[in-house]
Structures are given as structure tokens and as C-alpha cells.
Amino acid sequence: MDIEAFRKAGYGAIDAICEYYNSIESFPVMAQVEPGFLRDSLPEEAPEKGEEWNLIAKDYQEKVLPGITHWQHPNFHAYFPGNTTFEGMLADLHASAISNPGFNWSVSPSVTELELITLDWTAKMFGLSEEFHTTSAQGGSIILSSASEIAITVAVAAREKILAQMIEKNASAETTMEEITFWKGIATSKMIIYGSTQTHSIGIKAAMILGLQFRAIEVTKKDGFALRGEALTKALEDDQAKGLIPFMLIGTVGTTSSGAVDRLDEIEEVLKNYPDIWFHIDAAYAGVCLALPEMRTKCHLDVINRRVNSFSTNLHKWGLITLECSTLYVRNRVDLSNALTVTPQFLRSKQGDANSALDLRNMQLSLGRRFRSLKLWFTLRSYGQEGFRQHLRKGIALSQIFNKLIETQQAPLKIVAPPQWSLTVFRLEPVGMTDAQQLDTLNRRFWEELQTRNDAILLTQTTLPEIGFCVRFVCGTPSARMVHIEKAYAIICQIALKVLQDAQ
Ligand code: PLP
Predict the structure, then answer these.
(1) Is 80 in the pocket of ligand 1 (CB under 6 A)?
(2) Are residues 450 and 340 in the same domain?
(3) pTM
């Protein structure tokens, strides 16, 4: 494709995207295809000779798009939102145009500098203390692909930090490298990451990948599924008595199943006895609410600012920024670079050697990186902080409308966890049915029926301790309006009544 062909194809692509957004409601929310559908309609090998662009563009529309679930659809209420904006799309286009891996400041200074600037913008927008700003003496931040990648990155930093402390304390001038390596292996096998049963699988996965252990502490319905200080203390004491090494704790602000917020205040108290434990906050979904002053107490911003070692949120969920944009803020950037810096000759640069510029490769697992801050910059500038806040408040308001509709009891639906942020967890609870097993069976049936309408509305299921199987309804997609919430509620009621009737 030459420049003029690109110009024409580009205009065509933008037209197609505009058309897609104009007609998004005509698409089934969830892709209505079976596994392997695409293999049946595409050749088994890449074409030997290049093909006409028009044919490729047509095949995307006709063959690929039917296999897409429409996360931007106003009736998408599943998982958590995965929002995007036109500003973000344009940024990605530019980022693709200048495609480069930005691992060192020197390879594209703007890639590093815009990232640090926009991260400070968001840190300020979230009320994070200056200690987390990239302009501070020690703090730092970086945009990574996902909360999962962040958990692994942070766990590596936390592991190396604690191992270095142990070595410093125990090794002598006579200790050999072999002894240290052997000893590190033993210590690592005893190291535990803590979280709760509600911590996202990022905790288990990080431990699994790094050969560490993950301990999921029980939470209760009475406590709103939040991790409490007392349970944490018991877990830490039990494990220490067994000779294990607690070294990291993941607290969650906005759990996936119910939106719960761990009691960061109580955890902070407990950690006074464990000052070396790395305290990470996973606020992948709800962290963006720190942009709302009225939500900061609920998020325990004071504890975040006082104690946590690292905080992360996914701006690519509810936060409008196109995938991938997970932001990580650390109190001490050297903790990351101590664990992740490897500099062969070919990666050296004048600025890196002189330490006059930050090379972001030293704060992440991979070397190359996308120019992710461009979409953050475009979107934040175009929306302004005010527009960002309005978007979040709209999601919360629509969620409250859904909760009110549930209260009208057009069907015997019950909200089973305290509604949080823009998330409602509910289930079918007919009057007089109290048997847990019966309720579980009924709700699994309800869920199966809901899935038969996934062309019209899309929700997700979960299980909660002491409750069992239930359904999640999330707001926050920018295109959703009140009519969509009303429509969703009407469909949910219709299905609920059908399931009840069938059960009789
Ligand atoms: N943490 C929470 C609370 C989540 O809800 C999710 C995903 O929904 C994740 C982490 C994982 O996010 P990622 O896909 O960025 O790894």
C-alpha cells in the first residue's frame, strides 16, 4: 500500500468506524458464533500474492466483525467496561504510524517523557501524594499492559527487595555466590503473597509464575467481602509460626465479584508489625473513582498515600482509555529498577549511562513498549478532568437507576451484596425459598436463560461466599443511557418470571 492508497483506505476505515458507532445497537451484543467459525471461512495459508485492500477491508466487515462481542454496545453490562474513545483511536493510529519500542529515553524521548507527564497528570487527578509523582525524589510510575503484568512486576520487585534485605542481614564476607543462590532458592520457596478469596486471579498467577505461594484469606458476607485486619493478623502469625516468609500483600479497591474494598485502614495497622511487607493495591476497576473527591474516603486514599508501596488501576476499563493502559504508581522507583535492570552493551545510551534520563525498560518485564501515553494524553486533553469525572458519575447514576428498578420488584430479584461503584450483584430469590441448594440451582437456571438473550443484553455470573451463584450487572459504557438500563431490566424480569414459571 502506498501513501495515496493509505490515504484512501484510511478515510474508508474512519467512515466504517463511524458507521459502526452509528449502528452499534443493531449488532448482537455478544458474538453469535461457534468455536472455529473463522477457520471455516478463511484460507489455511497466507496468500502467496498480495491482495487488493478493498477485499481485505470487506472481509474484515463480513468475516471478522461477526465474531466480535461489542464491548462498546450500550447493552453491554458484563465483566467491567472496556471503554475506548475516538481520541484514543486516533492516538493509536499515530502511535502505529511512528511504531517504535521506546525502551530507552534516547530511542524516542517523547515516548518516555509524555508517559511520565501523563502519569503525573493522573496521579494528581487521583489525589495521589507527591511521593508517587515521577518528579519526586524517589517515586515513579509506568504504564503497563495489564493489572496481571503489574502484579508480576511488583512481586518481582518485592521479592528482590526482601531477599536483598535478608542477604544483607545474614551474609558475611565469607559467603560465596553459590551459597547465596542456594539460600535464595530456599527462601523463595517459603515466600507468600497474601490476598483474600476475592483478590483477582492476578495474585495466584503472579505467585504461580514466580514459584511463590499465594494465600487467599477468607472474607465474609457480614464484612461486605472485604479483607479485615483480624483475619490478616491470624494468617500472618500462622504462616510465620510455620517458618514461611510473608513478603507481599495485595489489597483490592473494587473486587471483581462484588466491588468490595478491603479494609486498608485495618491492614495498615496490622502492617505496622510487618514494615517489610510490600503492600500493593489492585484497583483495576474502581481506582479511577479516585478522580471523584466524594469517593476518596471510600477508596482509603489516606492509607494509599501513607503506607502502600504500589498502587495500580486500569484506565482501559472504566477509565475511557483504549486498551492497554494499566497504570502503576510506586513509592520507590528504585525498587523496580533494582530488580529489573539488565544492560548489555547494545542497550547503553549516553543519557542512561549518565543517569540523566529514565529508561523505562528498567521498570518493566519486557524491553520494547507501545506508545501508550499518547491515547491517555489525547483523551484527557479532550475530555478534561471535568469530562472524565462526568463520565464516571454517569456510570454510577445509571447503576443507581438499575438498583432502584430492582427494588420495584416486578420480579423477585434481590441485590445480594452492597452495590458498589457501578456494579450490582443480584439473584433470583422467590418469597419462601430459603434453601441454599435450591436457590443455587434456580439461579444457575436463570443464568442459562439470560445467556439465551446475550444478543440483547450481556451480563456475567459469579459466586460469592455464603451466597453462592449470582449475577453481575455493570454500568459504565459511555454509550449507555437510561433507556438501555430500563430495557435491560425489562429483559431480566421477563427471563426471571419465565424461569420461575418453568420451575413450578
Ligand atoms: N483486578 C481486578 C479487580 C479486575 O477486575 C481485573 C479484571 O477484570 C483484573 C485485576 C485483571 O485485569 P488485567 O486484565 O488488566 O490483568
Answers:
(1) yes
(2) no
(3) 0.96
